Amino acid sequence: SIPVTVKEGRRLLRNWTSDRGFPASTCAEDRLRVVKADSQKPVLEVQKLWFIYPSGTEVLKSVDLDIQPGKFVVIMGENGAGKTTLLKNINGLLRPSRGRVIIVGRDTGMLPVEELAKTVGYLSQNPNDYLFMPTVRQEIEFTQKNLGVENDATGKQILNRLGLETIADRNPRDLSTGERQRVALASVLAARPELLLLDEPTRGLDYRLKEELGGILLELKAGGATVVVVTHDVEFAAEYADEIVLMAGGKVMEQGSKYDVLTGSTFYSPQLNKLFHNIIPGIVTFDQAREALASLMNCVEHEGGASFRG
Known about the structure:
Order of helices and strands: HHEEEHEEHEHHHEHEHEEHHH
Oligomer: single chain
Number of strands: 10
């Protein structure tokens, strides 16, 4: 039978491996090693960052954070941890009370928001904040003109990449939630930012749209962009991120690969990790799970010619 809960899945997996007289980890561990990239100069450096709102509320407290170019980083934490405030300090909408934010070697304290927008793209929680032109195509053209970006073939390429070319002449506010989000993202990408910041982009999206968004962000990463996403969606983070940053109480509590941070975590462990916990270590993505199960089947065949029937 097919399990419908993590508990049922763990019972079936344990029974299947124990019946064959071997621990699952001995067969699958070697295939799950993570190759770490060589260290590079960070595209983003946050140094001892403090931020206090005019009301006196202290939101960020000596935050240190380095992000390497070409990484997909997810920032997680409870409401009020300071995640959105951190993003706004990075893109210049807010300015540090103390400390520094350095992007591509430049101190943002010395740069106007308009200049930062050419390097840093920021998508807030509400895509409607970005949609005010009569057509999708004009949204792209407005961004390029406003930021002084050459209006070349980039706009058309962005529309094609995000699957918007067939609705380019429609009013963005007449589109579906997923389409509006892609239009807002397209308007941000029109500036060709090196660093892309997204705040809760999966909110209100179903599984198909989340998968679509994840694929788009991976394409952008493959094209050289650095992606930073704030989200509560553990499954999305596990599937697409390279690194996880955990925040609490205005501080960065942990930063590392998703395999290190999410494995065995009490609050931020994805369902697949819970399923394989203490059976096969380090599983956080669907591809890993498939590979691990394939490895187990190979082990069974090697040990005694048995085949998987479950």
